[in-house]
Amino acid sequence: MLKIAVYGKGGIGKSTFSSNLSAAFGQLGKRTIQVGCDPKHDSTFTLTGTLIPTVVEVLSSYKFKSEEIERDEIVFAGKYGVDCVEAGGPPAGAGCGGYVVGETVKLLEKFGVYKDYEIQVFDVLGDVVCGGFSAPLQHSEQVIIVATNDFDSIFAANRIATAIGIKQKSGGGALAGIVANRARDAELVGPFAERIGTVCLACIPDHDDVRRSRLTARTVFEIDPTGAIGAPWMELAERLLAGVPLTIPTPIPERELFGMLGGDYVHAGNIPAVAV
């Protein structure tokens, strides 16, 4: 069984990455479930073709009496045999999305859902790793960080690496590696991955058909039946099934990271020391 949590900077393409990875696992004959952990609740819509009811919506309809909810009210069938769940979240400014994610993980455990699948993929909101948003990290065995060759996504990846180390103290998942998304190569992602003690698992090019698949609620495998565009996901799924080394990353001190990645406009020697 593989329990994978996907983290990364908001807007980096985690949901597109996760849904296509789940589709690849499904095509390889693996019983797979994807759990969207974002109030936007759009993690799985390329797998289902629609925005499915969220856990928070169902909970609300039962006045948050979770004992009255049935499994088939929150678990929905998607393409390639992939089952889908969306945690959802409260209206903006009206509650804690992390709480909803934590409750979703607990509810699925209560239903015994996890034992029914060979692959579990958690697609988690942005680089928020506090509170309930860290529940998938705690539940999973391995973490994939999605980044690209820019400062902001690598800065977020470094913070996620920090969270992985902290959660290891209570049994959280270890790091499988970093995926360079929307990238022809691993220009910055590769050296960063090596520096924190992990690897770049894959490079996924910035192909317009990937964007178009998202807009039309289809996976890349549907939009390109030749399989050429979906090849990076299929290769990664096979690699993960074969087993990859897991590591506890060593994050880079943030001021040092600024010096490494911001060399064109920031010089490490010009960054003031932290006041003691």
- Total strand segments: 8
* End-to-end Cα distance: 47 Å
Using the alpha-carbon principal axes, give the shape. Answer: globular
Helix content: 25-40%
Query: How many DSSP helices?
Result: 11
Instruction: Return residue spans where pLDDT drops below 50 for at least 5 consecutive residues.
Output: none
Which secondary-structure class do the elements indicate?
alpha/beta
SSE topology sketch:
Blueprint (H helix, E strand, L loop, with lengths): L1 E7 L5 H14 L4 E6 L7 H4 L6 H7 L14 E2 L4 E5 L10 H14 L8 E6 L10 H5 L2 E6 L3 H17 L6 E8 L7 H8 L3 E5 L3 H8 L4 H4 L7 H12 L11 H8 L15
Parallel strand pairs: 1-5, 1-6, 2-4, 2-5, 6-7, 7-8
Antiparallel strand pairs: 3-4
Helix pairs in contact: 1-10
Structure report:
- The chain is 37% helix and 16% strand.
- Strand 7 (174-181), helix 7 (189-196) and strand 8 (200-204) form a beta-alpha-beta unit.
- Strands 3-4-2-5-1-6-7-8 form an 8-stranded mixed sheet, sandwiched between helices.
- The model has no long low-confidence stretch (mean pLDDT 88).
- It has 276 residues and is an alpha/beta fold.
- The chain has helices spanning 14-27, 45-48, 55-61, 97-110, 135-139, 151-167, 189-196, 208-215, 220-223, 231-242, 254-261, and strands at residues 2-8, 32-37, 76-77, 82-86, 119-124, 142-147, 174-181, 200-204.
- The chain starts with a strand and ends in a 15-residue tail after the last helix.
